[in-house]
Amino acid sequence: MNRTEQDSLTGKTAIITGANSGIGFEAAKDFAQKGARVVMAVRNEDKGKSARKMILLEHPKAQVEVMRIDMADLKSIQDFTDAVKGQLDSVDFLINNAGVMMPPYSKTKDGFELQFGSNHLGHFALTGHLLSLLKNTLDSRVVTVSSLAHKGSKIMFDNLDGSKGYKKYPFYGQSKLANLMFAKELDKRLKQNDLETISLACHPGISSTNLFKFGKKDAPTFLKNAAAKLLQPAEMGALPTIYAATHPSLKGGEYIGPDGKGRRKGYPSLDTPHSVANDDAVMKKLWEVSEKLTGVVFDFSK
């Protein structure tokens, strides 16, 4: 792949949720290597500090710091953004990356179904709180990580909390569809208000991250072989995120994913969302419901 994304990020600041492992870690390492100041926004600070040490071993002069955030707790998100605003006066890249995948039925501290609450509502709230910094930063970008799982999914407005029935995969798909719809609707609203910040979505294909674990080191050989064929390493899975954040040709609203068969593996390129992600009425309703549930109202004034 020709290196067409921005090579030097010196002087820029990136906030990456879930940056202690997988795609978030690989993105953090890339931004740090290119000279950006990186805020690793993580739930487990010990794991975050270990990940930071790994980055500094490779890039001793990197500017990397660890800050705690729990995407399943609106107060934690508020506390994080208050702390950020006390330390930073600009944010160039907000990478909405952290996520949970197909857990047993459980809820966030605020009573939301865990996947919808942390994957979507948490990042909705985080972005809203940080908008004042983003919109005052030249050429800033919000990148929200979706998934192939958005295909064929739907927003279950009559059962968002799962109280009327819960199945792991449909609720995961719903949360990733919500990520994609949020990214698209945010970009539309930014443009309607003549703000320079842009919003994009991306997906990692099928990548070998902490979301895909066999649970035992002695996994059967056929599973390891299947994984090798189906999954790409996290450093490849992170490329669409990095591309979406830094490629100079992007204008906002794009969806970036791997270019290989089925969009499962490969190098980043423009992808086309499933038709379910293009329903303007659902996007508008999702936005309004998200504001109501989180209590976060975006200020798009200049």
From TrEMBL:
CDD domains reported in the protein's UniProt record: retinol-DH_like_SDR_c_like (cd05327)
Classification via Pfam families: adh_short
GO molecular function terms noted in the UniProt entry: oxidoreductase activity
UniProt entry tagged with the keyword S-adenosyl-L-methionine: no
Keywords, alphabetical: Oxidoreductase
Secretion signal, residue range per the UniProt entry: none
Entry annotated with the keyword Oxidoreductase: yes
NCBIfam families: PRK05854.1, PRK06197.1
Name of protein: SDR family NAD(P)-dependent oxidoreductase
